[in-house]
Protein backbone atom coordinates (compact mmCIF):
# COMPACT_ATOMS: atom_id res chain seq x y z
CA UNK A 1 0.00 0.00 0.00
CA UNK A 2 1.30 3.45 -0.94
CA UNK A 3 1.96 6.18 1.59
CA UNK A 4 -0.51 8.58 -0.05
CA UNK A 5 -3.43 6.21 -0.55
CA UNK A 6 -6.69 8.10 -1.20
CA UNK A 7 -5.14 11.54 -0.76
CA UNK A 8 -6.33 14.16 -3.26
CA UNK A 9 -3.35 16.20 -4.45
CA UNK A 10 -3.16 19.01 -7.03
CA UNK A 11 0.11 19.68 -8.85
CA UNK A 12 0.76 22.84 -10.90
CA UNK A 13 3.40 22.74 -13.61
CA UNK A 14 2.43 19.08 -13.91
CA UNK A 15 3.49 18.95 -17.55
CA UNK A 16 6.99 20.25 -16.81
CA UNK A 17 10.28 18.48 -16.17
CA UNK A 18 9.86 18.23 -12.40
CA UNK A 19 6.07 18.33 -12.30
CA UNK A 20 5.53 15.26 -14.46
CA UNK A 21 7.87 13.13 -12.36
CA UNK A 22 6.18 14.42 -9.20
CA UNK A 23 2.82 13.36 -10.66
CA UNK A 24 4.13 9.88 -11.47
CA UNK A 25 5.64 9.48 -8.00
CA UNK A 26 2.44 10.53 -6.23
CA UNK A 27 0.38 8.15 -8.36
CA UNK A 28 2.77 5.32 -7.43
CA UNK A 29 2.16 6.16 -3.77
CA UNK A 30 -1.58 5.78 -4.27
CA UNK A 31 -2.72 9.41 -4.48
CA UNK A 32 -5.43 10.78 -6.72
CA UNK A 33 -3.56 13.48 -8.63
CA UNK A 34 -4.97 16.50 -10.42
CA UNK A 35 -2.32 17.55 -12.91
CA UNK A 36 -2.56 21.26 -13.79
CA UNK A 37 -0.66 23.03 -16.53
CA UNK A 38 -1.19 25.48 -19.38
CA UNK A 39 0.34 22.83 -21.63
CA UNK A 40 -0.84 19.36 -20.67
CA UNK A 41 0.56 17.49 -23.72
CA UNK A 42 3.30 15.61 -21.88
CA UNK A 43 0.78 14.19 -19.39
CA UNK A 44 -0.99 12.23 -22.13
CA UNK A 45 1.68 9.52 -21.85
CA UNK A 46 0.61 8.75 -18.26
CA UNK A 47 -2.16 6.19 -18.31
CA UNK A 48 -3.43 5.93 -14.74
CA UNK A 49 -6.97 5.73 -13.37
CA UNK A 50 -6.11 8.10 -10.51
CA UNK A 51 -4.89 10.94 -12.75
CA UNK A 52 -7.12 13.88 -13.71
CA UNK A 53 -5.62 16.42 -16.08
CA UNK A 54 -6.90 19.99 -16.19
CA UNK A 55 -5.68 22.95 -18.16
CA UNK A 56 -4.99 26.06 -16.11
CA UNK A 57 -3.58 29.48 -16.91
CA UNK A 58 -1.83 30.73 -13.81
CA UNK A 59 -1.83 34.26 -15.22
CA UNK A 60 -5.62 34.37 -14.82
CA UNK A 61 -7.30 34.41 -11.43
CA UNK A 62 -10.56 33.23 -13.03
CA UNK A 63 -8.86 30.13 -14.48
CA UNK A 64 -7.37 29.27 -11.07
CA UNK A 65 -10.69 29.73 -9.25
CA UNK A 66 -12.54 27.66 -11.84
CA UNK A 67 -10.14 24.71 -11.58
CA UNK A 68 -10.22 24.65 -7.77
CA UNK A 69 -14.03 24.84 -7.81
CA UNK A 70 -14.08 21.83 -10.14
CA UNK A 71 -11.80 19.96 -7.73
CA UNK A 72 -14.14 20.83 -4.87
CA UNK A 73 -17.20 19.70 -6.85
CA UNK A 74 -15.63 16.35 -7.72
CA UNK A 75 -13.84 15.47 -4.47
CA UNK A 76 -15.17 17.85 -1.81
CA UNK A 77 -11.70 17.99 -0.28
CA UNK A 78 -8.05 18.64 -1.07
CA UNK A 79 -5.20 17.06 0.91
CA UNK A 80 -2.21 18.45 -0.92
CA UNK A 81 -0.99 21.14 -3.30
CA UNK A 82 2.39 21.12 -5.03
CA UNK A 83 3.33 24.30 -6.88
CA UNK A 84 5.88 23.24 -9.49
CA UNK A 85 4.91 25.73 -12.20
CA UNK A 86 7.31 28.52 -12.97
CA UNK A 87 9.18 30.41 -15.63
CA UNK A 88 12.87 31.25 -15.91
CA UNK A 89 14.62 34.52 -16.70
CA UNK A 90 17.34 34.78 -19.32
CA UNK A 91 20.27 36.35 -17.47
CA UNK A 92 20.65 40.04 -18.29
CA UNK A 93 21.56 43.32 -16.60
CA UNK A 94 18.76 45.14 -14.79
CA UNK A 95 19.13 48.07 -17.18
CA UNK A 96 17.84 45.81 -19.98
CA UNK A 97 14.87 44.37 -18.06
CA UNK A 98 11.48 45.73 -19.08
CA UNK A 99 8.76 46.13 -16.42
CA UNK A 100 6.60 43.76 -18.52
CA UNK A 101 9.23 41.00 -18.07
CA UNK A 102 9.41 41.65 -14.33
CA UNK A 103 5.61 41.54 -14.04
CA UNK A 104 5.28 38.27 -15.98
CA UNK A 105 7.88 36.54 -13.82
CA UNK A 106 6.27 37.87 -10.64
CA UNK A 107 2.77 36.95 -11.86
CA UNK A 108 3.60 33.31 -12.61
CA UNK A 109 6.24 32.59 -9.97
CA UNK A 110 4.83 34.58 -7.05
CA UNK A 111 1.26 35.87 -7.56
CA UNK A 112 0.05 32.48 -8.83
CA UNK A 113 1.51 30.88 -5.70
CA UNK A 114 -0.57 33.28 -3.60
CA UNK A 115 -3.70 32.54 -5.64
CA UNK A 116 -3.37 28.74 -5.69
CA UNK A 117 -2.45 28.64 -1.99
CA UNK A 118 -5.50 30.80 -1.23
CA UNK A 119 -7.84 28.43 -3.07
CA UNK A 120 -6.20 25.36 -1.52
CA UNK A 121 -6.46 26.79 1.99
CA UNK A 122 -10.18 27.47 1.46
CA UNK A 123 -10.68 23.74 0.86
CA UNK A 124 -8.20 22.48 3.45
CA UNK A 125 -9.75 24.54 6.24
CA UNK A 126 -12.96 22.52 5.86
CA UNK A 127 -11.20 19.27 6.77
CA UNK A 128 -8.51 20.85 8.98
CA UNK A 129 -5.88 18.95 7.07
CA UNK A 130 -3.49 19.79 4.29
CA UNK A 131 0.07 19.94 3.05
CA UNK A 132 1.31 22.57 0.60
CA UNK A 133 4.72 22.50 -1.05
CA UNK A 134 5.81 25.60 -2.95
CA UNK A 135 8.84 25.14 -5.17
CA UNK A 136 11.32 28.00 -4.89
CA UNK A 137 14.94 27.97 -6.00
CA UNK A 138 18.42 27.73 -4.50
CA UNK A 139 19.02 31.09 -6.19
CA UNK A 140 17.27 32.76 -3.25
CA UNK A 141 20.31 31.92 -1.10
CA UNK A 142 22.87 31.72 -3.91
CA UNK A 143 21.84 34.28 -6.58
CA UNK A 144 23.53 34.39 -9.98
CA UNK A 145 24.18 37.75 -11.69
CA UNK A 146 21.47 38.81 -14.13
CA UNK A 147 18.64 36.79 -12.59
CA UNK A 148 17.40 39.62 -10.33
CA UNK A 149 13.69 39.31 -11.27
CA UNK A 150 13.57 35.51 -11.03
CA UNK A 151 15.39 35.55 -7.68
CA UNK A 152 13.00 38.18 -6.33
CA UNK A 153 10.00 36.08 -7.36
CA UNK A 154 11.40 33.01 -5.60
CA UNK A 155 12.32 35.05 -2.52
CA UNK A 156 8.68 36.07 -2.37
CA UNK A 157 7.68 32.39 -2.45
CA UNK A 158 9.93 31.64 0.54
CA UNK A 159 8.73 34.58 2.65
CA UNK A 160 5.09 34.01 1.73
CA UNK A 161 5.25 30.29 2.55
CA UNK A 162 6.76 30.88 5.99
CA UNK A 163 4.13 33.50 6.82
CA UNK A 164 1.31 31.27 5.60
CA UNK A 165 2.67 28.30 7.56
CA UNK A 166 2.21 30.26 10.80
CA UNK A 167 -1.21 31.52 9.77
CA UNK A 168 -2.57 28.08 8.83
CA UNK A 169 -0.91 25.98 11.54
CA UNK A 170 -4.01 26.26 13.81
CA UNK A 171 -5.96 24.52 11.02
CA UNK A 172 -3.41 21.70 10.67
CA UNK A 173 -2.42 22.98 7.24
CA UNK A 174 1.31 22.68 6.64
CA UNK A 175 3.20 24.89 4.19
CA UNK A 176 6.79 24.19 3.20
CA UNK A 177 9.23 25.50 0.61
CA UNK A 178 11.45 23.25 -1.45
CA UNK A 179 14.43 24.97 -3.07
CA UNK A 180 15.85 22.87 -5.92
CA UNK A 181 19.43 23.35 -7.02
CA UNK A 182 20.24 23.45 -10.75
CA UNK A 183 18.09 20.71 -12.19
CA UNK A 184 18.26 18.63 -15.33
CA UNK A 185 15.12 19.93 -17.07
CA UNK A 186 14.58 22.09 -20.15
CA UNK A 187 14.33 25.15 -17.88
CA UNK A 188 18.05 25.10 -17.08
CA UNK A 189 19.09 26.35 -20.52
CA UNK A 190 16.69 29.27 -20.22
CA UNK A 191 18.74 30.81 -17.41
CA UNK A 192 21.67 31.38 -19.79
CA UNK A 193 22.11 34.74 -21.45
CA UNK A 194 20.13 34.73 -24.68
CA UNK A 195 22.71 36.90 -26.50
CA UNK A 196 24.01 35.51 -29.76
CA UNK A 197 27.00 33.25 -29.16
CA UNK A 198 26.20 32.95 -25.46
CA UNK A 199 23.22 30.65 -25.66
CA UNK A 200 25.19 27.71 -24.35
CA UNK A 201 23.62 25.32 -21.95
CA UNK A 202 26.47 25.54 -19.47
CA UNK A 203 25.43 22.23 -17.94
CA UNK A 204 29.03 21.63 -16.83
CA UNK A 205 29.22 24.97 -15.02
CA UNK A 206 25.95 24.28 -13.26
CA UNK A 207 26.99 20.72 -12.27
CA UNK A 208 30.33 21.93 -10.98
CA UNK A 209 28.52 24.41 -8.72
CA UNK A 210 26.93 21.46 -6.88
CA UNK A 211 29.19 20.00 -4.15
CA UNK A 212 27.77 16.51 -4.73
CA UNK A 213 28.91 16.90 -8.33
CA UNK A 214 25.82 16.47 -10.46
CA UNK A 215 22.67 18.23 -11.52
CA UNK A 216 19.53 17.65 -9.46
CA UNK A 217 17.14 15.17 -11.07
CA UNK A 218 13.34 15.42 -11.04
CA UNK A 219 13.37 12.17 -9.01
CA UNK A 220 15.34 13.90 -6.25
CA UNK A 221 12.62 16.54 -6.08
CA UNK A 222 9.68 14.13 -6.22
CA UNK A 223 11.06 12.00 -3.36
CA UNK A 224 11.11 14.99 -0.99
CA UNK A 225 7.78 16.34 -2.23
CA UNK A 226 6.20 12.96 -1.63
CA UNK A 227 7.60 12.76 1.91
CA UNK A 228 6.28 16.23 2.78
CA UNK A 229 2.80 15.10 1.74
CA UNK A 230 2.81 12.01 3.97
CA UNK A 231 1.80 11.78 7.60
CA UNK A 232 5.48 11.08 8.35
CA UNK A 233 6.03 14.80 7.84
CA UNK A 234 3.09 15.89 10.00
CA UNK A 235 5.26 18.07 12.28
CA UNK A 236 7.15 19.77 9.44
CA UNK A 237 5.86 23.21 8.53
CA UNK A 238 7.40 26.55 7.65
CA UNK A 239 10.54 24.70 6.62
CA UNK A 240 12.84 25.71 3.80
CA UNK A 241 14.20 22.49 2.41
CA UNK A 242 17.14 22.55 0.03
CA UNK A 243 17.29 19.71 -2.48
CA UNK A 244 20.46 20.95 -4.10
CA UNK A 245 23.43 18.64 -3.49
CA UNK A 246 24.89 21.19 -1.07
CA UNK A 247 24.77 24.15 -3.49
CA UNK A 248 23.24 26.44 -0.85
CA UNK A 249 25.99 25.87 1.71
N1 LIG B 1 15.22 23.55 -13.60
C1 LIG B 1 15.93 24.19 -12.71
O1 LIG B 1 17.17 24.26 -12.80
C2 LIG B 1 15.26 24.79 -11.50
C3 LIG B 1 16.08 25.20 -10.43
C4 LIG B 1 15.47 25.77 -9.31
C5 LIG B 1 14.10 25.92 -9.27
N2 LIG B 1 13.34 25.52 -10.34
C6 LIG B 1 11.90 25.69 -10.22
O2 LIG B 1 11.29 24.41 -10.23
C7 LIG B 1 9.97 24.49 -10.77
C8 LIG B 1 9.82 23.45 -11.88
O3 LIG B 1 10.74 23.76 -12.92
P1 LIG B 1 11.04 22.77 -14.15
O4 LIG B 1 12.50 22.67 -14.24
O5 LIG B 1 10.20 21.58 -14.05
O6 LIG B 1 10.55 23.72 -15.36
P2 LIG B 1 9.68 23.39 -16.64
O7 LIG B 1 9.81 24.57 -17.53
O8 LIG B 1 10.05 22.06 -17.19
O9 LIG B 1 8.19 23.30 -16.06
C9 LIG B 1 7.45 24.46 -15.68
C10 LIG B 1 5.98 24.22 -16.03
O10 LIG B 1 5.22 25.38 -15.66
C11 LIG B 1 4.21 25.55 -16.62
N3 LIG B 1 3.72 26.92 -16.70
C12 LIG B 1 4.42 28.03 -17.07
N4 LIG B 1 3.61 29.09 -17.14
C13 LIG B 1 2.36 28.66 -16.82
C14 LIG B 1 1.08 29.28 -16.73
N5 LIG B 1 0.90 30.59 -17.02
N6 LIG B 1 0.01 28.55 -16.36
C15 LIG B 1 0.15 27.23 -16.09
N7 LIG B 1 1.33 26.57 -16.17
C16 LIG B 1 2.42 27.28 -16.53
C17 LIG B 1 4.88 25.18 -17.94
O11 LIG B 1 3.93 24.86 -18.97
C18 LIG B 1 5.74 23.99 -17.54
O12 LIG B 1 5.10 22.75 -17.78
C19 LIG B 1 9.80 25.93 -11.25
O13 LIG B 1 9.11 26.67 -10.26
C20 LIG B 1 11.23 26.44 -11.35
O14 LIG B 1 11.31 27.83 -11.20
C21 LIG B 1 13.89 24.97 -11.45
TrEMBL record:
Membrane spanning residue stretches: none
GO terms classed as biological process: bile acid metabolic process
Entries under Gene3D superfamilies matching the protein: NAD(P)-binding Rossmann-like Domain
Alphabetized UniProt keyword annotations: Oxidoreductase
Pfam families: adh_short_C2 (PF13561)
Record keyword Cell inner membrane present: no
GO molecular function: oxidoreductase activity
Highest taxon of source: Bacteria
Family: Belongs to the short-chain dehydrogenases/reductases (SDR) family.
PANTHER family tied to this protein: DEHYDROGENASES, SHORT CHAIN (PTHR24321), ESTRADIOL 17-BETA-DEHYDROGENASE 8-RELATED (PTHR24321:SF8)
Protein name, entry field: 3-ketoacyl-ACP reductase
Source organism of the structure: Jeotgalibacillus proteolyticus
Amino acid sequence: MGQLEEKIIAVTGAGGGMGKVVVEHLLEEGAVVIGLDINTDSLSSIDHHNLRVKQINLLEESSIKEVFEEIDDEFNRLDGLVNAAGIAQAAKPITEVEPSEWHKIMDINATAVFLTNREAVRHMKKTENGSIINIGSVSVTRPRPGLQSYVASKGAVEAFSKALALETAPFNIRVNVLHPGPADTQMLSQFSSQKEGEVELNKDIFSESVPLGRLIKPNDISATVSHLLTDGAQIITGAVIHVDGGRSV
